[in-house]
Write a structure and sequence with these properties.
86 residues, mainly beta, 5-stranded antiparallel β-sheet
């Protein structure tokens, strides 16, 4: 575990519910309550499970940079053509 705040791509665990997943969104609020959208692993049946919003102070990092954030080249007009996921 680490002492830094969780960032995009970190694998985290909720200190209360033990919900585990990857941080995919970081929402910063005017009131100072930063929240993270955490997506769990795919279920045993291969179907995606619902993610959850959690306060940044309620999660701990269990694997830093478990997933590298995607960096897009936004110079091309209309965005980037990505191959379909399979």
């Amino acid at each position: 575990m680490t002492n830094r705040e969780p960032t995009l791509g970190d694998k985290v665990r909720c200190k209360i519910t033990f919900f585990v997943g990857i941080v995919t969104t970081h929402a910063k609020h005017l009131a100072g309550c930063d929240r993270l959208w955490i997506v769990p692993p795919v279920g045993a049946d291969g179907k995606p499970l619902d993610g959850q919003w959690m306060d940044i102070d309620m999660v701990e990092i269990i694997q830093p940079t478990a997933v590298e954030p995607v960096v897009y080249d936004r110079r091309a007009p209309g965005g980037i053509d990505l191959p379909p996921s399979r």
